[in-house]
Amino acid sequence: MKRILQVVGTMDRAGAETMIMSLYRAIDRSEYQFDFVYFTERPCSFDDEILKLGGKIYRISEKKSKTTISRTYRLYKIIKKNKPFHAVHCHQLFSNAFHLTAAYFSGIKQRIAHSHNTSDINSETLIGKFYQGFARKIINTLATDFISCGYEAGKFLFYPKRDVLFIPNAVNVKKFLNVKQLKTENFFNIPSITPGTLILSQIGRLMPVKNVEFTINFAEYLKNCKVDFHLFFAGSGRLEKSLKALVIEKKLDKNITFLGVRSDVEKILANSDALLMPSFHEGFPVILVECQTSGTPALISNRISNEVDLGMNLISFCSLEDSFEVWFNNLNKLIKTKALNSDKRHEILKKKGFDIDFSVKLLEKIYQKTKI
């Protein structure tokens, strides 16, 4: 059995982490086993499932390893102590430079850099840009294999001449394709919701990049326009407390509900009229693949690459500089657009490689390349 060490920050229910777990569930575990390195001591959403599937979890404490050098050294020690790993698969954008360094000096022959994003907060400062250039050079020098979730994500992290494998952020098609059958009356158990209430959802971490405050302000606009709506946020993050306070300040607590971390995303999509995603930047969000697979329309920021539109008449782009009136008009048009039936959606997903079985085969070919 080949053990693959997945280097991640945490394993909560976020885009990249969900994709990794989808691959883990589908891969032939008689041939490949995933182990994980976290940079946190707290419990994560997928811990129990990882352990149940036979994986090991190694933790590097942020409190005990406050510097990049100490975290790199601790990762080096984990790899050396727990050999042999067949490969080290790194998922943390520019931090991959240090993880690949640890893998290189610990003698790992296959070192994989995986890009999940198209932008980074470090791009905003001169020091940050210097760091990106330095890290990008190390990544492109020490990685033996390069993977991205989309063209733009690959272009952002890797040099132009690199042979980058595109592995789509695939989903379990069977789980989402006929999800509308899961629609139930008042699934969210909110007494004020009626059959005519517009149900909106935003699914993802409550972090600055997700631009959740924009969504709350949009909800305030809808309320002022006397729209009968209810907005649900599914996810958690460091902004949760301040966002809840903002909702109360704007007197939107009867229109907005925070659901917390959920494992039933397919049911949320089934019972939503539309998904909102006004993010400042994204890679190739898994939730948008799940959304289109389920037949649920999504109104999203034009800061997100247009490659996320799979051609199912379910995605509409809006500029963050546009007025809320424009967003609302686009939302109305989107909801009224007739979606493709499930057979046609499935055909598109298979053709574009978004079925998890196809992605697993691509990943297995990568892991088969190197012998210990």
User: Radius of gyration from the CA trace?
Assistant: 21 Å
Tell me the total number of β-strands: 13
- What's the domain count? 2
Catalogue the unreliable spans: none
Structure classification? alpha/beta
By CATH's scheme, which homologous superfamily of the largest domain applies? Glycogen Phosphorylase B
Annotated CATH topology of the largest domain: Rossmann fold
Helices, by number, come to 14
- Listing every helix as H and every strand as E from the N terminus to the C terminus, the arrangement reads EHEHEHEHEHEHEHEHEHEHEHEEHHH
- Give the N-to-C terminal Cα separation: 12 Å
Round the mean pLDDT to the nearest integer and report it: 92
Strand order within the widest beta sheet: 3-2-1-4-5-6-7
Please estimate the helix content: 25-40%
Tell me about the biggest sheet?
7 strands, parallel
- At CATH level 2, the architecture of the largest domain is 3-Layer(aba) Sandwich
User: Given the C-alpha coordinates, what overall shape results?
Assistant: globular
Brief descriptors of the model:
39% helix; alpha/beta; 14 helices; Rossmann fold; 372 residues; 6-stranded parallel β-sheet
